[in-house]
Amino acid sequence: MRIFVARHGETEWNLRHMVCGISEADLTEKGKNQARALAEKLKAEQESNSIGAIIVSPLRRARDTASYIENALGIEAAVENDLHEMNFGAFEGADWDDPEFRAIRKEPFVHFPGGESAVSAAARVYALLDRIRREYSCNVLLICHGTLIKIIDTYFRNRTMEEYSSFRPGNCELITYEITSGESASDSDSL
């Protein structure tokens, strides 16, 4: 079984270096083009990828990205609430370089004021991945968000805090995780 994971296309908030967790943000024209390119790539590789299901975050930027892929593959995406981006609470809309925001990001057990911690986000995402592994026999594509993908990566691979912090999935980057006999490996491909 393979699990493919892709981040949504570029948004205005990405361009402006604004923290965007559970807030809604629309795709830019570049983001729409990234989503189209990812959809075309997945369609061209569908014979070897054999994606049988698409699961998407409920947030608009992910659903809009998924819509291009749904059309290309002829598969309707299932919306999964546990794939929403990490809730950054009071820092939603703040600058990514805000010193307090950056300090909290380094502490996985610290909750953002009014939001969640990386550990609490990991609890919901790990439970979802366990459920996918139990309930699906086909290859699955997840369309979600940057911080969530960093967390998903830790489900499949051991990461130090330094490796976790420096891992930055790009917009519409596709990552593949191979699951064989309880083991996993990953591959990354940026558009």
CATH class: Alpha Beta
Q: Strand order, main sheet: write it out.
A: 3-2-4-1-5-6
Average pLDDT rating: 94
How many independent structural domains? Answer: 1
Coarse structural class: alpha/beta
CATH topology: Rossmann fold
CATH superfamily: Phosphoglycerate mutase-like
- Rg over CA atoms, rounded to whole Å, is 16 Å
Approximately what portion of the residues adopt beta-strand conformation?
A: 15-25%
The succession of helices and strands, N to C, reads EHHHEHEHHEHHEE
What does this structure look like?
The protein is α/β, with parallel strands linked by helices. It has one domain (2-189): Rossmann fold. Helix content is 42%, strand content 18%. The chain has helices at residues 12-15, 29-44, 46-49, 60-73, 99-105, 118-135, 146-156, 161-166; strands at 2-7, 51-56, 78-79, 139-144, 174-180, 183-189. The protein has a six-stranded mixed sheet, sandwiched between helices. The model has no long low-confidence stretch (mean pLDDT 94).
